[in-house]
Amino acid sequence: MSIPVDLERPRHLAPRTAAPPDGVTVPAPPTAVGIRTLAVAAAGTAGSRVASLLISLAAGILSARALGPHDRGLLAVAIAASAVFSTVCAVGMDTANLRLAGRSPGHHRHAVRASVRYALLAGTALAGAWAAAGLLLGPGVRLGLEPATFALALALCPVVLLSTLLGSVEIGRGRSAGYNLVVVAALTVYLAGLGGLVVSGRVSALTALAAYGLGQVAGLVALIWRSRPERGAHRSGDVVEYRSSARRAYLPNLAQFGMIRVQVPVIQLLVGASAVGVYSVALSLAEVLLIIPIAVSLVLIPPVANGQANWRSVVHLGGRTLLVTSVGAAALAVAAPYVVPLLYGHEFDGAVATVWALLPGVAVFALARVGQSYLTATDRPAATVVAAVAATAVGVAAMAVLVPRLDAVGAGLAGSAGYLVYAAVIAPAFLRADPRRGARRRAAPQGGWRGAAGGGSSPVLVGGLGAVAAVGAGLLATRLADVPLALPTMVAALLLVGVVAAVPATALWGLALAAPAAQLPEPYAVSPVVLLVLSAAAAVGALVRRRVTWRDRHCSLLVVALLAVLLFGATVIGPGEGLVASVTQVAVLAVPLVCLPLAVRDGPSAWSLLLGFAFSATVVGVVQTVTTMRDGAAALLSGTSGEANHNIWGPMLVVALAVLLARWGHPAPVSLRLAILVALPVLLLGVGYSYSRSSYLGAAAVLVCFALRRLARVGLWLVVTLVVTVGAALPGANLVPETISTRINETTATGALDVSSGLRLDMWAAALRMAGDFPAFGVGYLNFNERLPEYFIQHVTGGSYQAGPRLSLLAHPHNLYLTVLAETGLIGTALLVALLVLVYRSVWRGYRTRTGWVPEAALLGGIGLAVCSLTGEPLLTLPVLIPFVLLLSTATRRPT
């Protein structure tokens, strides 16, 4: 059932008018078009596009074998030049024709006349201007083409432009089948001409382009004949609407086309025509997947613009499009190694990897293309503009970095990245365009998968399917790595996924209690793999139970961009540990950052999670304190005390201290206050016996900031604290255990910095030198150690200290800020700073308005970790990162 037009489209597109004047015929209200009708029309368009594709594929194979990579690249550049010209110079008229040509005979007449007039006058003039610039400025403006080939390509530009405009007129008035036949006929003429050239032995880039031009001229003649206005059709008075629609659609069309087609001229300018030939082969194969989404998009725009189809119809067709495209992507990935050599020859073997690089982005872009058609039809160009511009910028920037290194494969990766960015921007805009969105928000949400999917599936069934998929993936991974996975582990994974699907809070509670347990002595320490599995299971459970917490989209985009920079640096700039190891290290950070914000919900349950973590950390602190007092400081500092790392569990206890102090500062039950009162000194003692000097400073910063807010009320408490601190520092005072005071004093015990502190300063200087030589993206995530020998200079440690044998153990410069700057450059640093500013702006707002104790805990924890990060990288470890993300996710989420 279709919904009313005034709900589906903006008001200025469906105005309520008064009664028409006498003698004027008013068209009948638009008839709703069913999903089946739209699907049939899309299938017909897709079928004709398949025929066109087969002809184009045959022509591409013929030209590739006859011309070779270089001349095939020149032909691709010339054809792309005419296509780029038609898009750049169409000024949105093609979209206006799609939307308005089918409204009335008058609209059709105006669209045809405007298209012909513009193509003949403006198209010819602009092509002439490009020709003059090419003659005056040289090969760069000619895109590396020979003068004769360049002149023929420019002569085709007005022809292709007018064909595009008249083709959109035909589709707009519901004659897509005839237009598709014209396209097939034009390509058939091109293939026949190319075959004749090959048989006669006269094929070259110029003659092949002439055959292509002959086909375009034949198609244009047929379109001009079909587009004749009907007799008696008067010129429509909606010229203003036509021009407005064209103007608003121009920038989205231009940026979207640039995202898809700008790769060819950019590759030509960066590395030459041979790489263009390889990339054009891969792109022609990958674009097979876009047949269905483009056909659906073309079929949807006219009925949506005329009120004959609604948002729900687009959703249904989008789901079917995604399914078909995903199956096609999987089939193409498997077939590419066999199809490319068979059809194009072994000269184009490099196109296989390029196809693989393009597939992820193309599959996602297929769904976004359908959603974008709805936004275009309803005259909502803003999101399309932002998406296309962002995707183009990301794609071109990635090509500038990747193409010189990886040739055509780099262009494939860059194009895939652009497609993903485009989809990430279009998706929320399309969801917000749902006219029933407000009604759904006011309705009571249904729990479980039944409410989310609208079907009859149960959480147990979905959880079971997810478990089977997870176990299957684990078996495949261990098969590939030749590492057998024990059956009990597989059964445990199965049970875990099933339990979490039914009770999502299970995974979150497991994380809150297990994250500190990762710092227990062996064999009781929890493995990092368990923490990652619990994080992923929490997100899966939230999705299955329809309890996903959607975060601020700007923060989400910044997280994705930051992780992309880390992955790029780890795998492309400097894969020092191998590709698999580098991706695994990035995944250790990516899984908590992406999964936990989706699963955490504000309220008493989330507050209990934070307290559970704090008390669990207190227990771990007791265990570690007893172990350290028994084994001595030397075992802990030398790293021989099992899994425990004093630079990890010290900052972890600082976060727990921030949580308990913030909870203590607000009203609480007596039992809870007694538990906190007991836990606080235990935590402080655990921090002391961590022997982590950065944790000492972090804990002190937390205590001072907690006291400053309550200075007026607890002035006496502050005075007592200061007296105790000063007394502890006096000679002969025994308030602080001797081993802790020795650890504090050994930094400058001999009148100069100790070896550990001096080594840190020398590493900081090395990190700054790396940042100076690699300012944009840094030396690559995890690549600091690989570069350290060539940048390390012993200034502070002096020549008496033999630093060479220890350099291989220094993975980071022991300063989180310098780590980010040296390994991700200014781009990664800017992304991280922007993310922290957005997150803590929300935290600060809650802190100022005194909305509960969680914002204060997040603020205190952030201050403590900021101080700890001056001499370490605690946030690169799961026992610290997981509770910190839990804390920020709870503090920045509005109560539900």
Explain the layout of strands and helices.
Elements: H1 5-8, H2 35-89, H3 93-100, H4 105-137, H5 147-172, H6 176-200, H7 205-226, H8 239-261, H9 263-270, H10 273-286, H11 291-305, H12 311-344, H13 350-377, H14 381-406, H15 408-432, H16 437-442, H17 448-453, H18 459-481, H19 487-502, H20 505-517, H21 528-544, H22 553-573, H23 579-599, H24 604-631, H25 633-637, H26 646-664, H27 670-688, H28 693-709, H29 715-729, H30 738-745, H31 755-773, H32 784-791, H33 804-807, H34 816-848, H35 854-868, H36 878-891
Helix pairs in contact: 2-5, 2-6, 2-7, 2-8, 2-10, 2-11, 2-12, 3-4, 3-5, 3-8, 4-5, 5-6, 5-7, 6-7, 8-14, 9-10, 9-14, 10-13, 10-15, 11-12, 11-13, 12-13, 13-15, 14-15, 18-19, 19-21, 20-21, 20-24, 20-36, 21-23, 22-23, 22-34, 23-36, 24-26, 24-27, 24-36, 26-27, 26-28, 26-35, 26-36, ...
Total helical elements: 36
- In terms of DSSP E residues, the strand content is under 5%
Shape: elongated
| Percent helix range | over 70%
Structural class: mainly alpha
- How far is the first residue's CA from the last residue's CA? 33 Å
How many runs of DSSP E, i.e. beta strands?
0
* Poorly predicted residue ranges: 1-30, 440-485
The biggest sheet amounts to: none
Using the CA coordinates, give the radius of gyration: 33 Å
What's the rounded overall pLDDT mean?
74
